[in-house]
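CO-FOLDING WORKSHEET

Operator: S.A.
Ligand of interest: thiamine diphosphate
Run index: 620
Mode: holo prediction, single chain
Checklist:
[x] sequence pasted
[x] SMILES validated
[ ] output reviewed
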Amino acid sequence: MKEITEYRFPEDLHTMKESELTVLAEQIREFLLRRVSRTGGHLASNLGVVELSIALHRVFDSPKDRILWDVGHQSYVHKILTGRADEFDKLRQYNGISGFPKRGESEHDVYDSGHSSDSLSVAMGIAKARDLNNESFEVIDVIGDGAMTGGVAYEALNNGASMKAKVIIVLNDNQMSISPNVGGMTQHLGRIRVSTGYIEMKKKIQESLRGKGAFGEGIFKSLEKARDALKYTIFEKCIFENLGYKYYGPVDGHNISELTEFFEAAKSLDEPVVIHVVTKKGKGIKKIEDNSDIYHGIGPFNIENLRPLKKSEGISWSAVFGNYLTEMSGRDCRIAAVTAAMLSGTGLDSMKEKYPERTFDVGIAEQHATGFAAGLALQGMRPFVAVYSTFLQRAYDEIVMDVCLQNLPVVFCVDRAGNVGSDGETHNGQFDLSYLSHMPNMTVMAPSNDRELMDMMEYTLELNGPCAIRYPRGECPMWDAGKDEYLPIDGRCSVIREGGKVLLAAVGKAVHEAVKAGNILTENGIDCSVVNARFVKPLDEAGIIRAAEGKVLIVTMEDNVLCGGFGSMINSLFAGLKNSPEIINIGWPDEFIPAGNTEELMRKYGLDGESAAERIMEII
Ligand SMILES: Cc1ncc(C[n+]2csc(CCOP(=O)(O)OP(=O)(O)O)c2C)c(N)n1
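OUTPUT RECEIVED:
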């Protein structure tokens, strides 16, 4: 056998024998393990779709046929099978290949994905355009059972059932989201999986058909007959059929020949069809199969023992949040935690363990999470919605309508705010200060250390209205009782140092960069003041105006896009004042920031302390 990088994919797949494909699957697993151990990435989901990806690329003719990957974190095998194996050394790095499908990267990547559950809509749009243009190709959408907990998938299914444009929907059911999957749909799929009478019948029919060249409609017709006979006894008619889709499955997602048969058969139909494929997340490596949540997305690891290479010395922002929420919940039984399928990621494990009845994983459903929290708040509870900044974008309307308009005490704990590094464009949380600050009734805060985060969480109870607390990915700087001054969280900014003609006004993570810039300026003989704004909305206007007295230059710093962010709030504040100092704003530009190392990206885009100091020295 050749090395993975020596094949000509996808062409070679069409000429390989089945025995060779089985060996290829193992080679791909080995390759994934090696490469991801060096770069980090999404491992378990990709190990689970090796045979599925091989069968898809064997049966369909990409890029003529369009293969879409929902979320796209499981597209590594697709990337290998479309000629990108030798680029895996730079997976998820600046100028390297993305960890998600990306149109700019390959003609085989149909759309840039990263957020869950939207692929069916896109697939149906492509299929409809194909039909209107009298073109002929297949549209195949691979969507996980986790992604099927997201509401927009049902909007597409509903619309697609009446539109009838042919899409082959491959439902990849591994019973896992990142954590074990939740909800009624999961239970429904589970019941289908264990309808063993039907599965046995299906196997017998397949065996009798195999070797007779009875591909295509033959298989499906026989399956339908068998199922009709069993329907009222052991087989539950599934939701897809009730909506008007052809449904076939469950299919063994690790059996290339069975998958091939079903995909060939799906090709022969001329209507939308759902093929329900059952896979094992982490397939092939026992430790990963058993801990697929941990190996869903991981940093570089030791390939021998699969342990992470980098031991984090400190505690993450998510953990500070989760631990403190658990503590608060012990004192206040009104407190509840809501997450949209990111229980561990947002630090809620301890909360779930201690107060399971007040911890809600609602599935990949940020909109529903927000409305649900509004309902809890209407009944006197104090919900904390723990959510990544990038995914909260989904719930914009619910935050406005269900929370802010009613002035309800829902607290959004906005994790992974700002730049997130190697997940890149689709996952950066660089917009939240902008999209939250313009909502009436909303208080927007950004802590710069653990104590501020905990105090802000307490302060939300006092405020008794909509609040957002945003904090970044990674390690949380600790408040130092011996060194740092303590100023209660009460709407005021905190003045870290005073002096000179320059004011550095920063918020959240950027406060540390402002302090660095201040130190560099002092070393270079330029005295300055540094303010930690803490509140983006409402701004502590009086405090900031006082700090700006006698200054010739204000420099704002934030880990958010400049457009509509903290800096623009400061601009508006000073626009109305006489003798306003000159103001420059430092933050992310009006661009999607690519994957890379966060520190390097901050340097490149001028968001770090050194760059800020250099810029100020040029001006002064
Ligand atoms: C809107 C949104 N919310 C949350 C996430 C984070 N997320 C990434 S993958 C994933 C689980 C997806 O499960 P599934 O579709 O079953 O794919 P699997 O990893 O099991 O193959 C989640 C919650 C996301 N990508 N998009």
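REVIEW:
The chain has 24 helices and 17 strands.
The chain has three domains: 4-195+236-290, 317-470, 495-619.
[x] output reviewed
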